[in-house]
Amino acid sequence: MTTIEKKLVDYLKDAHALQQHVQGVLSELLTTAADEPDLCRRLGEYARRNRVHTRAIEDRLRAHRASPSIVRDAEMLWGSIADVLRYRNHVGRHVRDGYVSAHLQIAEAEMLRRIAARAGDGETAEVAAAVCDDAHAVAAAISDNWDAAVELSLRRHGVRAHR
Fold first, then answer.
1. What is the pTM of this model?
2. Is the CB of residue 16 less than 8 Å from the CB of residue 58?
3. Rounded-to-integer distance, Cα 22 and Cα 16, Å
4. Cβ–Cβ < 8 Å for 33, 93
5. Please, which residues have CB within 8 angstroms of residue 23's CB and are 6 or more apart in sequence?
6. Sign of the dihedral through C-alpha 84, 103, 71, 61
7. What digits encode the pLDDT tens for the residues 144-155?
8. CB of 52 within 8 A of CB of 110?
9. What is the spatial distance between Cα 83 and Cα 61, in angstroms, rounded to a whole number?
């Protein structure tokens, strides 16, 4: 395995671990935003596509005779679970974390896409581009709903908003 191929596999493992984290964040976000059907529909579709991307990343790892890193996956998954436990009933924080996670995915996918292109792995570059496109879309969906997130957060804490 060449040095660039090793680096590519390393980035694929990181991308897989981040997918695990995003799935955890999305799961909690879908639960806390259940009162907003439009946002839930968009997040639900993103969660479905995220699972597809995870399988595609696993396929690319297998193509390079590698597998996901159990340690990295566990670290990212436990991080999202810890955040859920710490911020239970904090809708605003879950929405914020979803937005941040989408941008982490964008950064990870952009790096993976570029490394894959340099390594001559067009299939991995396409997977990374699809992850990036979907992460941009969900970040925009969240961004379109900041007011709804504030309303949900205030409502959960019994605060009536004044406009």
1. 0.84
2. yes
3. 10
4. no
5. 47, 50, 51, 54, 80
6. positive
7. 988 888 888 888
8. no
9. 28
